[in-house]
């Protein structure tokens, strides 16, 4: 496997470093990071000496994990053509394949949307490859991204804006709902650790039930609802308040914001 250079070791970059270290121990990792605090954390956590700037080396997989707003300035500092012998994998929200190929002057670009469960190896990453790159690059990208969890390739790049809402934002939306469960549990008299144990197992169990039985989500919900029973009573509140539409509206807004951010580099 090629060497990997991680540019930007914030939340996402650090999760990727941890995943690659664990799943691909033979891969050499170099890091460019401009925050002194993060540089210190990298030294303590991984024994990696990060630099504040990056000069591309041929044959390297470059993982771009800087904020989207920092990308134009980062690219402006690159020597034209210097990324052509690297495979560039971006995790930057909203920055298109076209913008990355143009600003970094290379065709070898994969754009991906990971999420924060990557931190515990349970990420879900959707990615889209520039159509002009070879299958070897696509497979290399798939291998690197698999180090942090599940991976899904999409052919149509516009789906990445929706994946940004679903995969990128999904953990926030689900955690927000988990927060309501936690408030209820604490109010009812469970202690914080009991509440956490219940919520995590309910989330995990529901996810496994959906995945392993391949049942439709509404069918899973219906199965819990005995007519006249407790869940049916609770569900009627969710339906009256139209929680389903509130959530789809939140996803629509998140996807629209991703499209707005897609203006970067155009
Ligand atoms: N967090 C998520 O759930 C998630 C999901 C999908 C995609 N993403 C994408 O992942 C990227 C990183 O997100 P994050 O949450 O990890 O952000 P973050 O925690 O702010 O990390 C970004 C890091 O990059 C550093 N940086 C900025 N410009 C740099 C440069 N030119 N060279 C080297 N380092 C530089 C920043 O340093 P300073 O703080 O000093 O600027 C910061 O430490 C973003 O593009 C985001 O859209 C994030």
What does this structure look like?
With 266 residues, the protein is α/β, with parallel strands linked by helices. It folds into two domains: 4-155, Rossmann fold (3-Layer(aba) Sandwich), CATH 3.40.50; 170-259, Orthogonal Bundle (ProC C-terminal domain-like fold), CATH 1.10.3730. It has eleven helices and seven strands. Strands 2-1-3-4-5-6-7 form a seven-stranded mixed beta sheet, sandwiched between helices. β6 (123-129), α5 and β7 (149-153) form a beta-alpha-beta unit. α7 (170-188) packs across α8 (192-213). The chain starts with a strand and ends in a 5-residue tail after the last helix. NADP nicotinamide-adenine-dinucleotide phosphate is lined by residues 7-8, 10-13, 32-35, 38, 65-68, 70, 74, 91-93, 113-116, 168. It catalyses: L-proline + NADP(+) = (S)-1-pyrroline-5-carboxylate + NADPH + 2 H(+); L-proline + NAD(+) = (S)-1-pyrroline-5-carboxylate + NADH + 2 H(+). Belongs to the pyrroline-5-carboxylate reductase family. It is found in: Cytoplasm.
Offer a quick outline of the entry:
The protein has 266 residues and is of the alpha/beta class.
Helix and strand topology:
Blueprint: E1 4-7, H1 11-23, E2 29-32, H2 36-46, E3 61-64, H3 71-76, E4 87-90, H4 97-104, E5 109-113, E6 123-129, H5 135-146, E7 149-153, H6 159-168, H7 170-188, H8 192-213, H9 217-224, H10 230-240, H11 243-261
Parallel strand pairs: 1-2, 1-3, 3-4, 4-5, 6-7
Antiparallel strand pairs: 5-6
Bound molecules: NADP nicotinamide-adenine-dinucleotide phosphate (NAP).
Catalytic activity: L-proline + NADP(+) = (S)-1-pyrroline-5-carboxylate + NADPH + 2 H(+); L-proline + NAD(+) = (S)-1-pyrroline-5-carboxylate + NADH + 2 H(+)
Enzyme class: oxidoreductase
Domain Pyrroline-5-carboxylate reductase catalytic N-terminal: 4-92
């Amino acid at each position: 496997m090629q060497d990997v250079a991680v540019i930007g070791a914030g939340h996402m970059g650090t999760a990727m470093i941890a995943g690659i270290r664990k799943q691909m121990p033979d891969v050499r990792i170099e890091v460019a990071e401009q925050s002194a605090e993060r540089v210190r954390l990298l030294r303590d956590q991984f024994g990696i000496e990060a630099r504040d700037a990056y000069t591309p080396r041929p044959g390297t997989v470059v993982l771009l994990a800087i904020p989207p707003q920092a990308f134009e300035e980062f690219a402006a500092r690159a020597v034209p053509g210097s990324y052509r012998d690297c495979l560039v994998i971006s995790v930057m929200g909203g920055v298109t394949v076209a913008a990355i190929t143009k600003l970094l002057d290379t065709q070898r670009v994969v754009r991906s949307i990971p999420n924060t469960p990557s931190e515990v190896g349970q990420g879900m990453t959707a990615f889209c490859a520039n159509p002009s790159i070879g299958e070897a690059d696509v497979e290399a990208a798939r291998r690197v991204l698999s180090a942090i969890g599940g991976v899904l390739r999409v052919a149509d790049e516009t789906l990445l804006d929706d994946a940004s809402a679903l995969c990128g934002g999904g953990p926030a939306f689900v955690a927000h709902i988990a927060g309501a469960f936690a408030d209820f549990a604490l109010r009812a008299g469970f202690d914080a650790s009991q509440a956490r144990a219940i919520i995590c197992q309910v989330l995990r169990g529901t996810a496994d039930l959906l995945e392993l039985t391949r049942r439709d989500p509404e069918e899973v919900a219906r199965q819990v609802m005995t007519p006249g029973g407790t869940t049916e009573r609770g569900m009627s509140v969710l339906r009256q308040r139209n929680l389903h539409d509130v959530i789809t509206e939140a996803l629509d807004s998140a996807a629209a914001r991703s499209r707005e951010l897609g203006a970067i580099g155009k």
